[in-house]
Amino acid sequence: MKKDDKLSLPARILRAAFITFGERGYDKASMDEVAQAAGTTKRTVYAHFTNKETLFRASFGQAVEWFLAELPELDPAGDVAAELTHFTSRFSDLSTWRGPVRLQRVAISEAERLPDLAEMLHERVIRGAEDRIARFLMESPGFGSVEAERALQLARLLLNMTTAPQRFATLMEATKPVHLHPSVSGFDRDEAWIRLAVEFFLDGLSAGRSQAGDGNAR
After folding, report:
1. Nearest Cα to 20, choosing from 3, 2, 38, 47?
2. Per-residue model confidence (pLDDT) at position 35
3. I want to staple 88 with a disulfide (CB 3.0 to 4.6 A). Which of 39, 139, 149, 162 is the partner?
4. pTM, whole model, 2 decimals?
5. How far apart are CA 89 and CA 218, in angstroms?
6. Is the pLDDT of residue 141 over 70?
């Protein structure tokens, strides 16, 4: 996430709101707290965002954009295992940082009142990552021809194999979310696990293709 000194005032307000809502929850967070955290006045906050729900929705959407912007691109010409490991490691690290974990918890707690936000979080973040992986699988020469529906199924399987244990553990507080942003605390914390999962995934695909080839040859 960007540093405050490089943000415009509206973006600074959104960042302050993201932190405040994450720490306090929707009901307990106040516009006064957001204004103080942003280094401005409540009147200025209202001038940019007309009410609390508008600010919450805007901060939620901006947080998703910041998250997606920090995911690396997948290079179809690169080494398949290395590309998938790098991408899913970054996804795991960002997902288990305290900020996104708290935002997910707020989205869950507000799911009845604002169901579209939880849906947007899933579609933009989870499904968005799956789409990126699926495109990579379809474009990478190492996979041959993979149909879109099959590629999306494989992408969903891979993302869950590599990142779901960490994401659910931190979401449920079985594992403490990382306090500092991964750029400070260090990326690739779960790389050993993720490398194993990627290797298992690719071995399974290779075995499946071999069996299919043997069946066609008979």
Report:
1. 38
2. 97
3. 162
4. 0.87
5. 41
6. yes
